[in-house]
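Task 17 of the worksheet. Students: predict the tertiary structure of the chain below and write it out as structure tokens. Keep your answer in the requested format; marks are given for formatting as well as content.
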Amino acid sequence: MDFKDTLLMPNTGFEMRGNLPKKEPGIQEKWNSIDLYNTMVKMQEGKPVYQLHDGPPYANGNLHMGTAMNRCLKDFVIKSKHMSGYQINFYPGWDTHGLPIENKMPSLGYDRKKMTTSEFREKCETYARQQIEIQKRTMKRLGTVADFDHPYITLHKSFEADQIRTFGKMAMSGLIYQGLKPIYWSPERESAVADSEIEYHDRKDPTIFVPFDVLDGKGVLAGDEKFVIWTTTPWTLPGDVAITLNPGLDYAVVECEKGKLIMLNKLVDSLME
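Model answer:
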């Protein structure tokens, strides 16, 4: 008796295996052919509009895991709102300004010191646009829908013009003024530095000098010496199992009222004080 025949299983046209690597190109081709995003928009035309604003990632290399997850979560929202009867509105965006892109240039063989500012900016823009296309392809392969043909990109002149207009409104409203707060500058990065990058919380920790017995002199030491160590984390001492020496430094054995102490040769005078 074939027990399989006794099971009341549903009949389905689904394949046993996903075969996603083979199916994905076909799915992508179909979505492109029917212009999926705009088709979804037209299906709910005239319905209440649901618009999701996109916080743009940097156009600086492949998508990292955080951005990929962000895109998928937004896609869940967009598709669920569409299925709930809303006319969706989602424009993807990319941030193409700032140090992440400029800092990438030296690794690509560009020396900003050997070119004009306009030439350097042109190289940055070319790189940024290349990264946008790479990230866009990845987002599509993740199965996300968006108006990829009309993204907002911060280097677009219209976007920059809107920023200037907004700044002008803020200035005319008295919201832009010169105060006493300093703006810190990084000579290395040639850019302003945030307070969080230079301010540290002050704290005081106990420090301690501790002598460790020599367990095996290996024929070099008599065995009655002690190594002196210094630490700012005395609470870790119970876990210590070894002391590290530097073969490129000279050590001295100093006899004093505390016994034979081994310490760095150049630090003998300061330590004995």
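Marker's comment: The helical segments are 20-33, 36-43, 65-83, 99-104, 117-141, 157-172, 268-272. The chain has two domains: 27-172, 208-272.
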